[in-house]
Each structure stands twice: as structure tokens, then as C-alpha cells.
User: What shape does this take?
Amino acid sequence: MGDRTPFSHVPYFFSDVFDLSYEYWGDSSVAEQVVHRGDDSSNSFSVWWLRQERVLAAFTMNRPDEERNVAPQWIEIGAEGIAVRT
Assistant: This one.
């Protein structure tokens, strides 16, 4: 009723299992590039899916709050190459 603003939603899933906490945002189905951050053989790493250098999806496991908190924002705005820089 009134203002016609588009619905904007970043898909999200999370789980906490024993000492593992993981979160997934976005949709990686059309990604062209996958970027790993941290040591993916440990229990603290992240995976970022990009298309044309724009962040589409992110998976984080036991990562710092600073990384987890910005993931949905980067996906929503289609941030360019942020996951690749650090």
C-alpha cells in the first residue's frame, strides 16, 4: 500500500553443530569464479562465488564477525572483487 519498493532479499542458511558454526548467503548457481579465504582444511575458512567480479554468494565457517557481517551486504549491492582483495 503506497510506496512501491521492490522486495530485496539475500537467501540465507546457517547451522551450529558442536564447535562448528557456518553460514551461507546468496546463490552460487551462475558463478564464474570461486575464491577461498583462510585454510579450507581447517575449521575456519570462507568461500566466495563471483560472476564478472561481483560477489554472488558466500560460505563462512568460524570466520571473524567482520567478514560474516559484510557478506550479505556485499551480495546485495553486487560488490566488485572485494572477496578477492584480502
In short: Residues 65-77 form the longest helix (13 residues).
